Amino acid sequence: MTTSTRGAARTPAVLVLEDGRIFRGRAYGAVGETFGEAVFSTGMTGYQETLTDPSYHRQVVVMTAPHVGNTGVNDEDPESKRIWVSGYVVRDPARVPSNWRSRRSLDEELAAQGVVGISGIDTRALTRHLRERGAMRVGIFSGEAVREDGALLARVQEAPQMKGANLSAEVATTEPYVVPAVGEKKFTVAAVDLGIKGMTPHRMAERGIEVHVLPATATVEDVYAVDPDGVFFSNGPGDPATADHPVSVMRGVLERGTPLFGICFGNQILGRALGFGTFKLKYGHRGINQPVQDRTTGKVEVTAHNHGFAVDAPLDQVSETPFGRAEVSHVCLNDNVVEGLRLLDRPAFSVQYHPEAAAGPHDAAYLFDRFVSLMEGQRA
Ligand SMILES: NC(=O)CC[C@H](N)C(=O)O
Fold first, then answer.
1. Do the record's keywords include Ligase (predicted)?
2. Is residue 265 marked as binding?
């Protein structure tokens, strides 16, 4: 629910965590109320890409960077057609955006899209709280919504949890569409959209791939109807433990031995397809500065992340799976979380992070080239 936007910066707002901790600040973006899972992102830049990443559906994003909105909002950087975060928390919003591409302020854009935010709170204290206690449900209330103060905590505690949430169908395309190859077309890829970011098909297209983006409900038959050289499973919101349909489609692809690549949710689905479990991390990885090691080369890359769940697979041994031998190919150097999987007997691999780099460093772009190599290998 949202109401007015004018003068929002003077409107009091309150952020209520499900464990009862409260932060008071001022409205930012739309005035009203919102609920979601409170998570923090450590990206210093790239707020447009963060806000429009469909994987953030039902999450309230706390920015650890203290000053947000400096470069305003442009029409080129969104990763999808709308803002998906359910709420936005910043300490000190830019008063005057300044960038040659800026079309409007971030405050205006949030308000125009009905996204309720809060500013002027101690985001460092909030982040430390989430780091100690874990990601949890939160509500942001401003304007009329603040008046029923006493009832706010109970309402936060009634909001849905992220664990057990099945959300891909709420964000993915309902109709298939094609992203044409840039230049000469070399391959066709079926990309199952579980909440895909716009840059991902683009990274494939610039390597000569024609990308057929399919709805999350696509069947194995739909995938093979485009006669693909490779199949891709995208990032997406929600709990991978609920993604039974994409897991069964992926098993169909693995059975046929078609080259397969997955990103983020796609990595969790590969984990499940191989028989591994997934679990919720205490507070997850979000930002554009996470160190990951590619264990196949030993190289360390700085990468973009947005995940709250992870695959539970043994780090230091090859696992026997229904689709042959598999190993953990990438690991996060901060906490040893599984960041990539690969099959040794079939052309399939995935990563838990974001090689499409929107926003983020481009260190992991080689993964798209690996996918191309698998498709070339299959043709040879
Ligand atoms: N970016 C993603 O694909 C996120 C995957 C999943 N929803 C998670 O939080 O771990």
1. yes
2. yes
**Using 50, 70 and 90 to split pLDDT, how confident is the model at 148?**
low
pTM: 0.96
Q: Residue 73's pLDDT band (boundaries 50, 70, 90)?
A: very high
**Which atom from ligand 1 is nearest to the alpha carbon of 263?**
3
ipTM higher than 0.95? yes
pLDDT tens sequence across 285-336: 999 999 999 999 999 999 999 999 999 999 999 999 999 999 999 999 999 9
Q: Do domains 8-158 and 168-379 have the same CATH topology?
A: no
Ligand 1 center–CA 237 separation, angstroms: 5
CA 67 – ligand 1 centroid, Å: 26
The predicted structure's pLDDT at residue 16: 98
Q: Which of 161, 196, 264 maximizes ligand 1 atoms within 8 Å of its Cβ, making it the mutation to test the pocket?
A: 264
Q: Is 168 annotated as a binding residue?
A: no
Q: Could you tell me which CATH number the domain at 168-379 has?
A: 3.40.50.880
Residue 268 labeled ligand binder: yes
Q: Is the dihedral of CA 99, 102, 105, 110 positive or negative?
A: negative
How do the domains of the chain map onto residue ranges? Answer: 8-158, 168-379
Active site residues: 264, 354, 356
Please name the residue whose Cα sits nearest to atom 7 of ligand 1.
237
> What confidence category does residue 168 fall into, taking pLDDT thresholds of 50, 70 and 90?
very high
Report phi then psi at 109, rounded to 5.
Answer: -65, -45
Q: Does domain 8-158 have CATH number 3.50.30.20?
A: yes
d(CA 156, CA 265) in angstroms, rounded, equals 26
What is the DSSP annotation of 239-276? -GGG-HHHHHHHHHHHHHT--EEEETHHHHHHHHHTT-
Q: Residue 68 and residue 113: Cα distance in Å, rounded?
A: 18
Q: Please state the rounded mean pLDDT for residues 157-171.
A: 97
| Confidence band, pLDDT 50/70/90 cuts, at residue 3 | very low
> Is the preceding peptide bond at 359 cis, omega within 30 degrees of 0?
yes
